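Obj.: predict assembly geometry.
Materials: sequence records (below).
Method: joint structure prediction, all chains together.
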Amino acid sequence: ESQLNPSYSFENFLEGDSNRLARNAGIAVANKPGGTSFNPLLIFGGVGLGKTHLAHAIGVDIKDKYPEKTVLYISAEKFTQQYIDSVKKNNRNDFIHFYQIIDVLIIDDVQFLSGKTGTQDVFFHIFNHLHQNGKQVILTSDKAPVDMQDIEQRLLSRFKWGLSAELQTPDFETRVSILKNKLYRDGVEMPEEIVDYVAKHIKSNVRELEGAIISLIAQSSFNKKEITINLAKDIVEKFVKNTKREVSIDYIQKVVSDYFQMDVNTLQSKTRKRHIVQARQLAMFFAKKYTKASLASIGSQIGQRDHATVLHACKTVDNLSSTDKQFRKYVEDLSKKLAL
Ligand code: ADP
Ligand code: MG
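Observations (raw structure tokens):
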């Protein structure tokens, strides 16, 4: 079982300036797996920019051209889970062997391995074995190798051996073509000005872009609503708001600073003034609670602190909210403001 999703093809992955390098490198790898200098091929970029799609597309295309090759797609999270299970069941060697005989190994979201030294260690050995035997490795990550945290140096240096290709946010033209392709595939027609409106207002995430157009399609086909600019406005607004709240550490810092009537720079500053320290700790606590970011990444985004500081902040907030009534009120108020 390759775990590949055939609908994530190259054909459906529209090309633009933002992804040309990564897409073409992917095509080169698919034509000659293990036979290019793009080994490993590491695709990196922000949330919803097409990393998973592109990783699948490479695998799907290889399977098409080389049916005899074993191709495996797996998320780093699942890989980690499998490894932990293998240790528990005392068959770590079987786990390693299983991965060492694969021809094309695709691991999605390798940033998940940060801080997981056991899994990094086993992956290091698997990687070396595959690479030495001319097998292809494809990785995705939310950051470039230079920006990865809590990943062992020897693994990072391996990540840099091949090509690191970035998926950037697509420009307006590309966003329009992605939307039109989606509409075309669904057999739906939509006025040009609506498509332009959506593409103009949703800039930083292709998943949101698609989500908005899917909502519009649903409104028109199930609720029989006429698709007007006003409806598009409503939907775009909801989309941008909801997803921002869900993911952004910036948003959390903004809400916490506003609540304590300070600006974000103050919250991030090095000062030890008690109320500022508390605001900062609350921001870290909510970032841990409401985002998927690692402790290290939260720390670096909230005033360049390390992961131990964030961990300490989370514990402090837990303690204070059970002992200090005023503090508990802060937590409750902020939870309400941040809740979806
Ligand atoms: P990531 O893994 O980077 O978070 P995904 O690969 O899950 O992002 O992509 C999010 C959505 O956007 C998917 O539905 C994907 O098909 C779509 N998408 C991203 N980039 C493109 C593109 N260039 N052309 C068409 N669809 C795209
Ligand atoms: Mg993904």
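Conclusions so far: The chain has three domains: 20-167, 172-247, 249-338.
To do: check interface contacts against the pulldown list.
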